[in-house]
Amino acid sequence: MKVSPLRRALQQWLILLLILIAFWSGKTSAHSSSNSYLTLYALNDQLTLRVDIHLRDIDLIFDLDTNRDGQVTWGEVQMRSSELSNWLDQGLQISASGINCSLSKVDLQVSQLADGNYLSAQWFPKCPSITDIANTNFTLRYNLLFQQDSLHRGLLKIDLPNLQSSALLSPERPETQVSLVESGTLRVFGRYIIEGIWHIWIGIDHILFLISLLLLAPLQTSRLRITQWSAAQQVKPVILDVLAVVTAFTLAHSITLGLTVLKWFTPPTNLVEFAIALSVVLAAMNNLLGINSLKRWRLAFIFGLIHGFGFANVLLDLGLPANAIVAALGGFNIGVELGQLVIVLVFLPLAWLLRRTFVYRWLVVVGGSIVIILIGTYWILERSGITI
Question: Which of 66, 120, 128, 388 is the most exposed place for a label (fewest CB within 10 A)?
Fold first, then answer.
């Protein structure tokens, strides 16, 4: 059968898309959670800035692990404390009412958080324009590690008198305005929608899980091998199948997202990350089981519960404004759904157009599932602490 130029171009585009996803996955797997945590708060009526950066990330720049034992110790940090202090000072800037504040001598220490050891730095910025912290507008600029890792993020939590808020700092948005007007419910809702969209788009494990569940949608289930399944003849059953998968995933992760944010149930972060990697592998393996494969909407619901815990960890890292918790939770969840919808709207039309082709059944479904299994297996080993 002669392949039209348009269909050939679509085949090439979809293959390229899968290759890019695989490459991106390999690139980001080593730093799947490269986040720094910044806190701007008042300590005894004195403005205080704290930053926690994973020693693993700093080691990429300063090569702190001098004895090559795989662990960065406080002694190794102390040996480079002067360089680290200068680096931190150059990458952070804070101003009050448009006037730059001077950062005091930094206090360095090593702190242990859920996912490893962090370098903790604390300053007491001197801002000559401040007369009342509660009524001062601040601007914070963060520019650490972005050149080394484009997916690195700074999670800012603001806890000042009359203002509890948060912000996500990235290479595209390294600066944020800290203003009392930001605490309005509508502003919080809109900002957290953006945070939710952004998280699902950079969460490659969530994307691969979703794509795994969508790969078989444009094919008709039969007792033949998957490579011999026929293409769906009508679009309506395909849409209903995808709708069932997406609805189940949405309902499930919304449940656990809410449970965790409201502090009713909070599983260990490392266990959640391991389980998410396992869900990616199992969802992709399910595509290769043929007639014996499980209903994909059931997988979407079961593993969606686990992914919800992952979403909640990000939301808690961002921090929730005490005066607008519901707005923040609702906005973030809606943002995740919108980001997910975009992924479906990009992938599904291409899959529908190519469903009759050898390329789709062999390279996209079979080949794509195998690649996803390999990536997920790497994540399982990495998140288990096994170095490859």
Answer: 388
